[in-house]
Amino acid sequence: MDTFLLEKANLKFFFIMLSGFQPLIVSLYNLSWTLQSTVREIDKIQLSLRGSPQATIGGMFYLLGFSSSLYHLVLLGQQRIYAINWPIRYKMQAVKSVYKGIGVVWILSLLSATTPGELWKTASNIFSRKFLDPKL
């Protein structure tokens, strides 16, 4: 196998595994404390974390893992289409372009993971009862 293709495959595999690792760890941690707690303790913990920085940051990391996994799959699909339609160009593709694609995937993932939280805060302030009814 060509060393270039092997290097591209290894890079893609590494970043896909990296993006899938975080949701797995979070899920295992949550499963462990869920199995060791009663329903009331779980409700109490979840309600105490509602709206906290820990919940917001945890949600952002969860969205980051989810969106980066999806975007990596889109990148893989794009690379496969490129390899099928233009095989000679695909073979001559530089490693730099693969790095650029992975960089774009992570930038899009970071934007899509952090933007909804900020938009939600803004929207919840705009549509809150205090904003709509100043007497409250």
* Annotation field: number of helices: 6
* Distance from first to last alpha carbon: 70 Å
Helical content, roughly? over 70%
Shape: elongated
Notes on the structure:
The chain is an all-alpha fold. It has one domain (about 5-130). It is about 85% helix and about 0% strand. The chain is built from 6 helices and no strands. The chain has helices at about 5-35, 40-50, 55-85, 85-90, 95-125, 130. The longest helix has about 35 residues, at about 5-35. The protein is elongated. The termini are far apart. The model has no long low-confidence stretch (mean pLDDT about 75).
Summarize this structure briefly.
The protein is mostly helical and 136 residues long.
Name its key features:
136 residues; mainly alpha; 6 helices
Question: Which secondary structure elements does this structure contain, and how are they paired or packed?
Answer:
Elements: H1 3-35, H2 39-49, H3 53-85, H4 87-91, H5 95-126, H6 129-132
Helix pairs in contact: 1-3, 3-5
